[in-house]
Amino acid sequence: MTQSVVVQGDTSLCSAVGQCGNQVGCRFWDLALREHAHVNKTGVYDDALSSFFRNVDSRKSDGGACGFGGRIQHLKARAVLVDMEEGVVNEILQGPLSEVFDSTQLLTDVSGSGNNWAVGHMSYGSVYREQIVDKLRKAAEHCDCLQCFFLIHSMGGGTGSGLGTRVLSLLEEEFPEVCRIVTSVYPSPEDDVITSPYNSVLAMKELSEHADCVIPVENQSLVDIVNKIKHMSDGGKPGLTIRKDSSIISGQGGLRGAEKPFDAMNNIVANLLLNITSSARFEGSLNMDLNEIAMNLVPFPRLHYLVPSLTPLYTLADVSVPTRRLDQMFSDAFSKDHQLLRANPKHSLYLACALMVRGNVQVSDLRRNIERLRPSLPFVSWNQEGWKTGLCSVPPVGHSHSLLALANNTCVKSTFLDLKERFTKLYRKKAHLHHYLHVEGMEQSCFSEAITSLSSLIEEYHHLDATKGKLIPDAPRLSIAR
């Protein structure tokens, strides 16, 4: 069984590098434990648990790990938590998940990054470099077969964007052969961090250069989904009442105190991670290796941004409403209402698409729905069969089925164009630039290189979009001389 390590960090939305990353990561670990408890009735440490958890015997002086097949002693998450403000990490350590982490997995400071990418990337990145590398190595040493690093961070703040992308480059430097999948939470246009366009564009350059896959999630999409679910649960539509605690926005997930405004949004991202890791954690008739995501969905190195959509987001309570048909679930996965990014992929071009299905679903169901949906989904001419599918037999707790779609689609260009526009408005006036240039190691060329990188990325997507609807003839075959 392969293992993965989750690196959590700070963000401006919530918190595993940074505040947002750690809040999302905390919710992921809480949900993962619930899933394994639901499936593992024997209390035995098995392959499924080992993929993301260690089994530690605290009675041993060295806190040694227990082997497969033995009783579960103390589960420790395969994780590293980094934040330059200690509030969220302290909250985790005082909450119900306190025993899942220990001090060797944590790295905190007290002053924060002041919503400044340069402080996170340059200052803290230099000061804490050796400690970060040491914690990553120790986490890796506990794995028999390390397959993947998951990095969770936000783009708008200073720690998530700055230190988060510094950690990403360190992962590539120290573990060049291990896949790096990044979940990045992008700020909304109305973000209250005025420097978020700078932070996001500076981080984008690092993501394009050092990640194998990036799963972009927009704050505004999360807000829209949460509002829609709450509207339905309040009786917005007759006959469409949501069953209590059945939506994926329910619950705090391992944190103390009253529910916070961002908890529901964090839960959606945590469920995304839950589904993407399901094949690594449970058995299935058609499991998808995590390395296969990048191998099959990324035809060009920099075009590795995968648009996520998730279904179901809730369960209907009214028994008179029939359970949503399996086919409808597939249709929902390609609708804007279930995307975690505001864009319309059907008006753009698919380079490839992965469908990760959970529950009692047959391969024939999968193939039938792909054939049904294929005519409405414009794929590039040279990859008409660009589908990757995975079937995991264990559904999320409380649901009979679920589906995560990851689409490599040129529609992400609209998000990047919006980000570029907001960056340019600030940069044209050189507004707030001095806060960055006062940081040692930060130069104005970092800004020009970052916006050039983003513009180049947008242009690559634009060139692909221009081929939509055009049939590119196959290269002529070589003729054999007689």
Per DSSP E runs of 2 or more residues, the count of β-strands stands at 12
How much helicity do the residues have? 25-40%
Q: What is the overall number of helices?
A: 16
Instruction: Write the H/E string, N to C.
Output: EHHEEEHEHHEHEHEHHHHEHEHEEHHH
Q: Which structural class do you get from the secondary structure elements?
A: alpha/beta
Q: Categorize the overall geometry.
A: globular
Strand numbers in spatial order across the main sheet? 5-4-1-6-7-8
What is the first-to-last residue Cα distance?
Answer: 53 Å
The low-confidence parts are 10-15, 317-323, 473-479
Q: Beta fraction of the residues?
A: 15-25%
Report the biggest beta sheet as strand number plus sense, adding barrel if it closes: 6 strands, parallel
Q: Measured on Cα atoms, how large is the radius of gyration?
A: 22 Å
The pLDDT mean sits at 86
Q: In oligomeric terms, what are we looking at?
A: single chain
Polypeptide structure, described:
- The structure is a single chain.
- Mean pLDDT is 86; it is low at 10-15, 317-323 and 473-479.
- Helices cover 40% and strands 16% of the residues.
- Helix 7 (196-210) links the parallel strand 7 and strand 8.
- It is globular, with a radius of gyration of 22 Å.
- The strands form three sheets. Strands 5-4-1-6-7-8 form a six-stranded parallel sheet. A four-stranded mixed sheet has the order 9-12-10-11, with helices on both faces. A two-stranded antiparallel ribbon has the order 2-3.
- The longest helix is centred in the C-terminal third of the chain and has 22 residues, at 444-465.
- The chain contains 16 helices and twelve strands.
- With 482 residues, the protein is α/β, with parallel strands linked by helices.
